[in-house]
Design brief:
This protein is mostly helical and 117 residues long. Helices cover 66% and strands 0% of the residues. It has one domain: Chorismate Mutase Domain, subunit A, CATH 1.20.59.10.
Length: 117
Amino acid sequence: MTSETPAPPETCQTMAELRAQIDRVDAEILNLLAQRVGYIDQAIVLKTRENLPALIEDRVAQVIANVRKGAGERGLDPGLAERVWTELVAWAIAHEDKALSRRPETGKPATPRGEGR
């Protein structure tokens, strides 16, 4: 991620300045998304070892509830946050399910890296 200090939105005086800040935020979001996918890949390893399914409904509900609460605390629309995270979680479950369905009989996890990227 960039170490550049973000400009508060109200200080942007031109659309070019504003767009540059939006692009900077988008780059940070992509870095965080890549980091999140790394954790999902590790979940595949752990779920293989612990013989857990890709979909754990209680955890999905917990993630969505946490996101809705966090969005509200930040003045964001909880519905928007829920829609974004619902898509992220659906992708993660499909990614995990694909890797977990290829588990070899040896009990060693399939390598998840690079799928869907």
